[in-house]
Amino acid sequence: MKQLMVNEVRSMKMMAMMMVVTAGMGAAAWAQAPATPVMSPATAEAAQVAQPQAPAASAAAPVNPFPPVNLKNFTADSPTTAEVNAFLKQSWGFDDDRIWSVAAIVKTQAPGVARVIVFAAEKSHPDKVSRNEFFITPDGKHAIAGGVIDFGPTPYAERRALLQQAANGPAEGAASKDLLMVLFADFLSSRSKDAQEVASNLVKDIPQARLVVEYLPADGSPYALHAAAEGACVRKLKGDAAFFAYGQAIYSSQKGLTATTLQAALDAAVVAAGADAKSVDACSATPETKAVVEASIALAAKAGVDVAPILVVNGRVLPPVDVPYDTLKRIVAYQAQLDGISVKVQPTLTNLK
Predict the structure, then answer these.
(1) 213 vs 310: CA distance, rounded Å
(2) Which contacts (CB < 8 Å, 24+ apart) does range 263-272 have?
(3) 211 by DSSP, 3-state: which?
(4) How many other C-beta atoms can be found within 10 angstroms of the C-beta atom of residue 151?
(5) In a 10 Å sphere around its CB, with 0-12 CB exposed, 13-18 middle and 19+ buried, how is residue 7 labelled?
(6) Least enclosed by CB within 10 Å: which of 26, 141, 184, 214?
(7) pLDDT digits (tens, 9 = 90+) for 37-93
(8) 180-206 pLDDT tens trace
(9) Homologous superfamily (CATH) for 159-338
């Protein structure tokens, strides 16, 4: 019997996000930036970046392991070096050990598209330099690095505002939406199961955080849609705490789940959450419930999320399963700091995968 577990395919966007969080946005290899003939006035401030950039928390000036900046490698009208550095500080600033240098911002044959080359290294290993390359779209709001990601001095602000207004799914943690984590999840995905565990522990370790769950069933699977609809009904009838109990029960029964055993597993999860299985099953078939799930899927699309699980922290898209937990917790705290939120991070309460 065919199992109902969704195919664990990660989108190019998720892979690009993972690269931004961890090693950068390109292959790790030493290479000179291409020589180009004319420096654009908009990037003339590149002359001021001879020293490597690093998070402001660093007290001592880091050793500069990078080649000298060649001003001939700055021909694009935008973005400016300052804008690239601001973007990289948003993306990489959580890591006090990371330093970088913008090596080139050049025009390409595609009108308005700029090619950016950044050298990066760790202060603890300055001999290991990575070359990171990405492209900026003409609107200046997106970067292409294996996938399309946000770009700019405050690249996550627009998505943060959207989710603060529209992410109204089941929630736990703080009442305030100032530090908002939105988990787009699929009950029939093993990766969503792991992501839920990670997100719930982040709420415990960072008390200022609020976690909201939104439904994103894989590829319109009728089984995943049905599981999401029953979850929406559990919440409607019994509240948010019951929803999380239902989700945990479904995640625990994923192994070996088939079309034949699905409804029995859903019924058991509903009962575990303290609701009546027949009432929830009837509720799940109503147009109102279907509209709840469809609205969640539409919100994901509007937020640029195309695969579950994804964790969005104040607009910043993160792959919750692929990043070490301590790193993820540091990123959440750093994003809060960028947004003017003072956080008190608790010691890690559990041992995570």
Answers:
(1) 10
(2) 266/226, 266/227, 266/230, 269/230, 270/230, 270/234, 270/246, 272/245, 272/246
(3) strand
(4) 25
(5) exposed
(6) 141
(7) 344 444 445 544 445 666 655 555 556 899 999 999 999 999 999 999 999 999 999
(8) 999 999 999 999 999 999 999 999 999
(9) Glutaredoxin (3.40.30.10)
The Cα–Cα gap between 116 and 173 comes to 39
Q: State whether residue 120 is helix, strand or coil.
A: strand
DSSP calls for 37-73 = S---GGGGGGGG--SPB--TT--SPPP--SPPP-GGG
Integer Cα distance of 286 and 266 in angstroms: 17
Question: Is the pLDDT higher at 25 or at 346?
Answer: 346
**CA 159/CA 328 separation, integer angstroms:** 19
Which pair of tokens denotes residue 23?
A: 């090693």
Closest CA to 214 of 316, 315, 310: 310
| Termini Cα distance of the chain | 30
Segments of the chain assigned to CATH 3.40.30.10: 159-338
